Structures are given as structure tokens and as C-alpha cells.
Amino acid sequence: MSHRFARCCRLLLGAALIAMLPVPGHPAMHALIMTISDYKAAGAIPLKGVVQDVGSAREMAHRLGVKDADMIFLKDQQLTLDGMRAAFDGLNERIGANDQVFIYFSGHGGRQMIADPVERCAESLITVDGYGFIDAELEANLKKLSKKAEKLIVFLDACHSGGVTTRSAKIPGRDSPFAAKYFSKSGTDACQTPVNVLKRSLGAATRSIGSGAQNYVYIAAARDNEVSLDEPGKGGVATQAWLECLGGAARDLDGSGAITAEEVRVCAQERIDKKLRNVPGFSTHHIAISGNSNAVLNLAQQNPLAKPEPPPHPAPVSTPPASPEPEQTASASLPVPILISPALPGLGQAASTVLPPLVLSSPISPGQEPALPAAQPVPLPAVSAENTLRDIYSGRDDRRSVTLATSRPAYKIGLDDVEFTLISSHPGFVYVLMVGSDGKTFDMLFPNQVDRNNQLGAGQTLRFPRPSWKITAGGPPGTNQLLVIVADAPRDFSTLKLTPAGPFSMLQANLTSAKDIQLVSGMSSDAASAECADTTARRNLSVAQRCSNAYGAAMVAIVETD
Known about the structure:
single chain; alpha+beta; Immunoglobulin-like; 2 domains; elongated
């Protein structure tokens, strides 16, 4: 539709969803940061790099928007088995409905045989005194948190190792620059030997957490048959690589204007491979993502794969091209929302999708419609408008059900009116976005100039278009995409430079607008207010509703035929 019409193997390892640049504190974000370097258990080697992981975790939390007052730091002697249990209980007491949670752990991981009720190898985080905080107990705590939290973000840089024996654990020797983050109280492992030293996975169990499975991302510092490594003076190898890529090194491979977990994984793996190349005793370990690998972690600073259009007049050969000024987004002063992106099946690849226009019939005459804006004099890097919509869809709270259905599978060009119905499990404010047939515009269909009543009750059926406006299929043949958001709190699209087009509005698709529309779609219009920043005030249900960034979403294809 264009505007032709008016560090652990598989221990529930999670992703830190982090913005590239520091942002104002997110009032609904909490962090629990746990690190153990000075182990007291006999045979547990100290992890000299973990001291640096504390600063890395703090930076991760800051980039998420967590304020210092909402961070809990626990280390070494505070993290006995009872201390770790108390840490999770305390975190559960702190958070409110629809808050977001970031959990970080760096230390030894391990595996142990338990009866559960049948005998199995249990993965565990190793406490300072050498006991295992096993996978089942970790999962139970995360389930409890998930009943309140909208997003649960976990990053564990540890390793259960998949079965390091006493001999293999000593392969690197005293002079090795790395240490395996693995400990076995008995000195041996009844499980299997890891492949990267010359197996039960909690990943499968985590899929049962809550009904919003796509609200989680699990990132393992190593596969379930590998060890993750600690580097003295620098920290966990996986932590270093992940944070560097989140700091700007990761590339926007799909041109959506945002960086996903998979795009960060690709970047981080390259760095791990380079660092561990030819290290005696170990081969590289591999970051493994389970859960939602399409999670949006941050907004792109640039699109290295895009090829900007050439300037109108080529610069003289003797004059080097000037460096472009940093982009300023319309909503740069607002906190960056955390966006989790589940896969969107059945919509195909954005690069090969053409989105045709629809023709508008409305009470506004063509003479009242303003001319489309002229092309920008300085072209911005190319983006995929459809992939940007996918990212917004991906940020939804997966515990919410939103059903969007069209009146028919295909529409005849020039004959059929496009109609659809919407039902949401939660009440909220409705927004309907689409991408243009040429992929060059974001179109705001609803609310619009003639219909601004966008509130929807839980379970209520909303039929579009309403009598005051309608959309008729206008071609060319192809497939359109519609995205519907049902948000707890209103969104302020007035911060974007939308251009009226009949009763609707449009925005040229470029890197700046792709980032802006994701920010606005994913954030309450009151998110930056003093009231929303007041943790005490947010305990009031009405305030919490106004400040909520949570939303449900649905995305469908609309086919036009001759």
C-alpha cells in the first residue's frame, strides 16, 4: 500500500537487550548482577577476569536504561546457595507488573548427576562454596518472575562444560591466558567430554516458561558440549565480544533500522573466533541462541550493507568526501524500549516482497490532499520498511493475543474494498501501520484525520474501515503488509515528521525514520515523564497503566490481484 491513495553451555543463557548509546533510565527496568571470582570450594580455580565482568554487566544494564538505584550487585561470599536463592526472592519482590528484568551471572558452571525423579545430568551455576544452583531451581525462579515481568532478559557467562574431566581441565596449564569456567566438586564429571577441549540442555525446558515464550531470549556463551572461557584482566570472552558488538560493531544485516540477537551473535562469534584462534588446549566456543533469536537488541547506528544513492554531482577526485553528520532522531531524548522479536512465519523475505498500493475512497476530496514531499537532498542509507514493521511486531508482549483477519484471501484491483477485523485479549489503544508498495514509505492508517477513536476493549471486535473512510484495492498486483498494535498506553506519533495524505499520514522510509517509528511504537507517550520515573508512583495501577510500554500486535498480508 503506497501513498498513491490519499557463558554456559545450555544453562538458560539469556540476552542482554542493550541500546548502543546510554539512554535515560527506564523506570520499569531492574537488574540483578551476580559475579563470583574468589571461590572457596576446594579445587575451584579463581576466575581473575570476573572482576572486569562487573563493569561490563553494569554497562549492559545502563545501556538497557536501568538506573543505578534499580541495580542489585552481589558477589563472592554473598552468593552461597542460600544467598543466590534469596537474591531471586528479593528481585521478585521488587518488580511490578509489566516491568522488565535483566539478570547477569559470571562464574563457574557445572553438571551433576541428580534424581529428578529419574537420574539425569543437571546443569548448574556454581555457588561460592561449590554447591550447584541447578537448572530446575533456576527455571522455577524464572517462571515466578515471568508471571510479573513483561520481558525477562538473562545473560549467564558460565559453563556446565558438557563433561570436562580433571585431566582435560588442566590442559592449558598455568601459563594459559584463559581459564575454563567449569567446576566439579568431585573432580570428575559423570556426563560427557566437551568437544572443544583436545549432556542435558535446559534450553528445551525453558520453552515451557509461561505462555509468552517469545518474550525470552536465551544466549549461551558456549554450546552444550563446549566450555566458555575467562580471560584474566579482561573478563569472560563471550561477555567481551557481546558487549563490543552491542556497542556499535554489530551490523544491521536486514536493513530494518535495528539490531537483532542473531546479528549480534554473528558479530560476537567473529570476535571469539579471532581471539581463540590457535589457543593451546582449546578450540573456539560458539555462542548459541535459543528462544527468540530475532530479538531486537538496539537501534542501528548505520547500515554497512546499504548502498546509498550517488550524489547529484560527483565530488572532485582530489577532494575527499566529507564525513556525514551524526543522525538526529525525532525521539532521541526518549528512553529506548526493549524489543523482543519472535519469528514472523509466512510472510516471506522482505528483500523479495513488493507491497502494492491501495486506492482510497474517503470524504476528503483529492484537491485537499497535499503533494507528496520531495525526495531528500541527501539520501540516507537504504532500509527495508517491511523489516522495520517486523521489528515492531517483534516487540510485542507475547502473553497478549491479537487477532487480525481480512475479509477475503485476495482483493480484485479496482473492485474490492479492503476490510478486516481486530480482536485483542487485552484492552488498549489501536494503531494500524503499513508499508508502501515500493517499500519507501511507512503509512499510518489509523487513527487518522477523520477517525481518532482508537480505544478497544478486551474481547471487543473492531471492524475496519469505519463508515467515514474506506480502502479500495488499487494495484498493482502483489502483497501488502498491515501491522496492528494494541498498546496499554497511547503512543505519540506526532513526534515523527508525518506528512498528511488524505485522511492518512505517511513517512518516508530511511534509517532515521525506521529508528524513530520503532521508538514511538514501542513506548508510552508518558514514558519520559517524572511520574513514570517515580518507582513509588508506579505502584499505583492507573499510573502503571499510563507508563506501560507493553503492547500486543498482529501482522497480516493483503494480496491484490487483477
